[in-house]
Amino acid sequence: MRVGIVNDLRMATETLRRIIESSDGLEVAWTAVDGRDAVSKTAGDRPDLILMDLVMPVMDGAEATSLIMKTHPCPILVVTATIEGNARRVVKAMAGGAVDAVETPTMGLDGSIRGGAPLLDRIAKLQRDPGGFRTSLDSPAIRDAISPPSSVASVSSNHRPSVVLLGASTGGPQSLRRVLSSLPTSLHVPIVIVQHIDHRFVSGLTNWLSETTGHQVVGSRPGPMRPGEVVVAAAESHLVLTEGGYDHRLEPADSIHRPSVDQLFMSAAACTFKGIAVLLTGMGTDGAEGMAKLRAAGWHTIAQDEATSAVWGMPAAAIRAGGAMEILSIDEIGDRVASRLGIVGAE
């Protein structure tokens, strides 16, 4: 795996270089001193992964992430000095397409490095779940395997939806914002979200979504579902649904993602109530198996289309698995959910 390093501090760049060069299967592709430099170097030599700092002169990491994902998409891991202090910047970078975030390792006066293990753990996680970027979906064989349903009406459920589930990963915060913004704040059903994000960033995400959508968005807690609430999985565990409401579970502990969209979807498929499930932009395949189970159980299922996805991995996987009843652009999804909920004025 070839890795690009973006950081304006020479010591931080050297620390990251040593970690990468001392790890089997990893090599440094290039280094950049700010976001603009990173955008330019990515255009000329797209690496397998970019380690992106946030606070830099000329162009910060969040803006650079957004530009790279629009022009030459590849996995971007935010590496920041402080998670808590930069929570809002991290959310902005993830809205632009960053896949995860980790604190910057440090080097002592004796040359010893502290904090390298979490970084290498995140990189290993990305190596286990690499699929989904546009460049990996350009082959005719993959496109031929994706066949949209011929008739939505023939498979649509007649059940009145009682909950809306949203699953997202890379680029998800922005897609979540656009879906929630198109829905009225006076909903009569709960909305439950699993976004691949470190649990330490959830408060920043919920605050950002609340401010930008008008909905009151909160972190998840075990207990009953309440009409109109918007809940984001907030624990370092899986968020699942039961007949009685929400619960958090550690198993399966070996999941690539925790929380997992699949675990939310599959738990809902085992319940007696029905609803609407939406799989948004994201790298990998999480949510595909669960969406197929939801569709089989009578739920209405929607996948975000390729054109409006930052990374068309998870939605494409759900389509291939036969789980998606509809494939819609991000601007159409909110209207479709509103329509299925019977909201007056929805198309």
Structure, explained:
- With 347 residues, the chain is α/β, with parallel strands linked by helices.
- The protein has 2 domains: 127 residues, Response regulator (Rossmann fold); 201 residues, 3-Layer(aba) Sandwich (Rossmann fold), CATH 3.40.50.180.
- The chain contains 12 helices and 16 strands.
- The chain has a 7-stranded parallel beta sheet with strand order 10-11-9-8-14-15-16, with helices on both faces. It has a 5-stranded parallel beta sheet with strand order 2-1-3-4-5, with helices on both faces.
- β1, α1 and β2 form a beta-alpha-beta unit.
- α3 runs parallel beside α4, α4 packs across α7 and α9 packs parallel to α10.
- The longest helix is centred in the middle third of the chain and has 13 residues.
- It is elongated.
- The termini are far apart.
- About 7% of the residues have low confidence.
SSE order and pairing:
Layout: E1 2-6, H1 10-21, E2 27-32, H2 35-44, E3 49-52, H3 61-71, E4 76-80, H4 87-95, E5 100-103, E6 106-107, E7 113-114, H5 116-128, H6 140-145, E8 164-168, H7 172-181, E9 191-195, H8 202-213, E10 217-219, E11 230-232, E12 238-242, E13 245-249, H9 261-269, E14 276-279, H10 288-296, E15 300-304, H11 314-320, E16 326-328, H12 330-341
Parallel strand pairs: 1-2, 1-3, 3-4, 4-5, 8-9, 8-14, 9-11, 10-11, 14-15, 15-16
Antiparallel strand pairs: 6-7, 12-13
Helix pairs in contact: 2-3, 3-4, 4-7, 4-8, 7-8, 7-12, 9-10, 10-11
Just give the CATH class of the largest domain. Alpha Beta
CATH homologous superfamily designation of the largest domain: Methylesterase CheB, C-terminal domain
SSE run:
EHEHEHEHEEEHHEHEHEEEEHEHEHEH
Unreliable sequence segments: 134-157
- Average pLDDT level: 88
Total individual domains: 2
The name CATH uses for the topology of the largest domain is Rossmann fold
Query: Could you say which overall geometry the principal axes of the C-alpha atoms support?
Result: elongated
**How would a crystallographer describe the biggest sheet?**
7 strands, parallel
Evaluate the radius of gyration.
20 Å
**How many strand segments?**
16
Number of helices: 12
Strand order of the largest sheet: 10-11-9-8-14-15-16
The helix content, as a percent range, equals 25-40%
